[in-house]
Design brief:
The complex is a heterodimer of chains A (about 475) and B (about 260). With about 475 residues, chain A is α+β, with helices and mostly antiparallel strands. Chain A is about 45% helix and about 15% strand. Chain A is built from 24 helices and 18 strands. The longest helix of chain A is centred in the first third of the chain and has 17 residues. The N and C termini of chain A lie far apart (about 50 Å). By secondary structure, chain B is mainly α. Chain B has one domain: MetI-like fold (Orthogonal Bundle). Chain B has 12 helices and no strands. Chain B is globular and about 70 Å long. The two termini of chain B are about 40 Å apart. The chains are: A alpha+beta (about 475), B mainly alpha (about 260). Chains A and B meet through helix 3, strand 12, helix 23 and helix 24 of A and helix 3 and helix 11 of B.
């Protein structure tokens, strides 16, 4: 894995800005305005030794940025010139605020809850039938989307609109804990309660984000219920778990506030960006993290000779994904624009491009490839153990690649034993674990206000308590 | 004559436009959002709620305490330094000044990162003293902004004033408190304004030294993150009020000082 340097990223943004200013849009040229997360696409310029050679002989290397490749591919395929104006955002809220202020984009890549919010507010345009046509061999997205992810998407309906009709998935992952196995046992790391463990006081961090903190705290709040044998055995266990971890009622929020206050006392900090580096230097020994960043942290630590692991707590993890959505305000019923936007989402889903992105940014694509098994070959290429390696185990991730349970075992990676707790585990958790992970819904206005008030309460200086004690 | 007059006025147009677009218009927008509710009705509800909640008032007080402490410490350190730099008799004066001002040229996140590492070596775990670390890093960050204006007004201070004071029988301390400090009040005031206001809102420093308690700046950010522009703007407006109050008080102080001298 590697990360594009900030300078390359900002260079691309800058150059696209410059070109955006210079050229008047020509009649036959389509301008596509895309906004994506920072460092969330292959920007090319790989070294030669970074060439990925798959088993079937496919060679993959990122020479140019995927954006340039798209422009070229689009012209070759459709005979229409498209110019991408690519920009980036830092948080979902930032993107949302930009759009409400009046910035126009055609295609953006927010996270699941923001997609739901936008869908709820009627901002999104439905993908066309052509995009969803499974018969067309060039429709990489619908043909290549992982059956498991597709099934999870199917569960999401907002106001009677199915999310899968409005969004094309991009990357997915889970929320878990990166920990240092020399300090913390696997067992301790397998529960969100670790965050309250006072023997590691002031040596752990949690994300400075309402939703992520809320999720960890609500799992602790309902710990007894959701780890109860009877609850686990319920026939509709998944729905019940999802409902419980998505609760936002007054009592739950009050309970979460108490837990978060305790967590705050026990934490090194609520971190915005320092968590990854602090794990590597050893300032902190456990860190709440998204799986993709966890992979990056573990890679960095490996380079420094520190071994870190990733755990998905047993109570349940938060399954998240980012996806491409088209904005009504940007596309404005321009069929040429819509076609280009859909083509971009589709182009990102072409297996070789998905591999390039995964390699470059360290996150996991929602694409499993369908008939094309290059994605699995890539995972195998990345993680399978060397021939002379001892302590190898079989790690089955078939659920991601095939809908047919009987074929699951065909997608097994023979990897070194520690990978079952490390990068491979973070990128492709086991079926049992991912089944325990819950998609967290957006908070509607009233609930959002309640939760934000709770969050400010946790974070603000408590005058009354200060006066009482001192 | 008339034409030249007209031209001179025309020169001010760009500045006036600048003021309107970048100062007055944004201020009006902030006030509009701050004193309306979500539907655009004028409302004092947010304003009153701010002062009703112990948590938000606590944040205001916490920020004020940080800002006052940082400003006071900066002033205590900067004044002697600026005095020595301006009035001391030694070679390579400007090289010394450089040493103090040089940090201004380095991006502050870089400086704080360095300071953070030093503190980690000294303290072990930064998380046990978040408040103290915040003060240390902010003082370190803002010190040059205090030294510069003090240095400028101290260099302008005529040495003959000091001599006259000595001739009239004042000892060294009396000279400093009765002559030097009163004459450099404008420098002190601009130093304080340069430090006090940023210290109330610069939450990046708090983030960097792992202080997870909100100050006014982070509170504004949290409201905008929750799409609550009204409360976010209101808090900006409250800060603005404090700035206004602060400026009025200091202006009075200067005016009083100058009036006193004339008498």
């Amino acid at each position: 894995m590697r990360r594009g340097s900030f300078w390359i990223a900002s260079g691309v943004v800058l150059s696209s800005l410059l070109t955006g200013c210079s050229g008047e849009s020509e009649g036959d040229e389509v301008v596509l305005r895309i906004s994506n997360w920072e460092e969330y696409i292959d920007l090319g310029d790989w070294d030669e030794e970074e060439l990925i050679e798959l088993e079937d002989g496919t060679e993959i290397i990122g020479e140019n940025s995927l954006i340039e490749d798209f422009e070229e591919w689009y012209y070759e395929t459709y005979g229409v010139k498209v110019r991408v104006e690519y920009s980036t955002f830092g948080t979902n809220e930032e993107l949302y605020n930009q759009i409400t202020i009046g910035d126009t984009y055609d295609l953006v890549c927010p996270s699941e809850y923001m997609i739901m919010k936008m869908l709820n507010e009627g901002m999104l345009l439905e993908f066309s039938e052509d995009f969803k046509d499974v018969e067309n061999e060039e429709n990489y997205y619908v043909r290549g989307l992982s059956p498991y992810i597709a099934q999870r998407f199917n569960d999401i309906n907002i106001d009677g609109k199915a999310l899968r009709d409005y969004a094309a998935g991009y990357m997915w992952g889970t929320l878990g804990i990166v920990y240092n196995p020399e300090e913390i046992s696997d067992e301790e790391a397998s529960s969100w309660k670790l965050l309250l463990n006072t023997s590691y006081r002031k040596r752990m961090t949690i994300k400075d984000s309402v939703r992520d903190a809320y999720f960890a705290a609500i799992a602790i709040h309902y710990y007894d219920q959701i780890t109860d044998e009877q609850f686990l055995a319920l026939p509709d266990y998944k729905e019940q778990l999802s409902a419980m971890l998505n609760r936002t009622d007054v009592d739950t929020v009050a309970g979460v506030e108490e837990i978060l206050s305790d967590i705050k006392d026990n934490m090194y900090a609520f971190e915005t960006d320092s968590g990854k580096a602090d794990m590597v230097t050893g300032k902190v020994i456990a860190n709440q993290q998204w799986s993709g960043d966890a992979v990056y942290t573990m890679d960095q630590a490996d380079e420094d000779g520190v071994e870190l692991c990733y755990a998905m707590p047993e109570e349940g993890s938060n399954l998240w994904f980012d996806g491409w959505v088209m904005l009504k305000k940007g596309i404005e019923e321009d069929p040429r624009k819509q076609q280009a936007a859909e083509a971009f989402a589709n182009f990102c889903a072409r297996p070789d491009n998905a591999i390039r992105n995964m390699y470059y940014i360290g996150y996991t694509s929602v694409i499993s490839g369908g008939d094309d098994d290059r994605i699995f070959q890539y995972v195998d290429w990345s993680y399978s153990a060397e021939e002379d390696e001892e302590d190898v185990v079989d790690y089955e991730i078939g659920y991601f690649f095939t809908p047919d349970e009987e074929e699951y075992s065909e997608y097994t990676i023979t990897c070194s034993e520690d990978q079952t707790r490390r990068q491979l585990h973070a990128q492709y958790p086991l079926y049992e674990e991912v089944e325990k992970s819950v998609i967290m819904y957006f908070f509607p206005a009233q609930e959002n206000e309640r939760i934000n008030r709770m969050w400010t309460n946790v974070r603000c200086f408590d005058l009354l308590e200060f006066l009482k004690i001192k | 004559m008339k034409t030249s007059n007209f031209e001179r006025k025309a020169l001010a147009i760009p500045y006036a436009l600048f003021m309107v677009f970048f100062v007055i218009f944004p201020l009006l927008v902030i006030l509009y959002y701050g004193f309306t509710d979500g539907e655009g009705h004028v409302s004092l509800e947010n304003f009153l709620n701010f002062f009703r909640s112990a948590k938000t008032v606590g944040t205001l007080i916490y920020s004020l305490v940080i800002a006052v402490m940082v400003t006071a410490i900066c002033l205590l350190i900067a004044y002697p330094v600026a005095y020595i730099l301006a009035k001391g008799e030694y070679a390579r004066k400007h090289a010394f000044l450089m040493v103090f001002v040089l940090p201004m040229w380095i991006n502050f996140t870089l400086r704080i990162t360095a300071m953070k590492e030093i503190l980690t070596v000294l303290e072990g775990n930064l998380a046990y003293h978040p408040f103290m670390n915040t003060i240390i890093c902010m003082v370190y960050d803002f010190l040059p902004f205090m030294i510069m204006p003090l240095f400028n007004s101290l260099t302008k201070l005529d040495n003959s004033m000091l001599e006259a004071s000595a001739d009239l029988g004042a000892n060294k301390w009396q000279t400093i408190f009765k002559v030097v400090i009163p004459l450099t009040i404008p420098g002190i005031v601009s130093g304080i304004t340069m430090v006090f206001l940023p210290a109330m809102t610069n939450y990046v420093v708090l983030d960097m030294v792992y202080n997870s308690t909100y100050i006014m700046g982070s509170l504004i950010g949290s409201y905008f993150n929750a799409y609550d522009w009204n409360n976010g703007s209101l808090i900006s407006a409250i800060l603005l009020m404090f700035i206004g109050l602060f400026t009025i008080i200091t202006n009075h102080l200067i005016a009083g000082e100058e009036g006193g001298r004339r008498r």
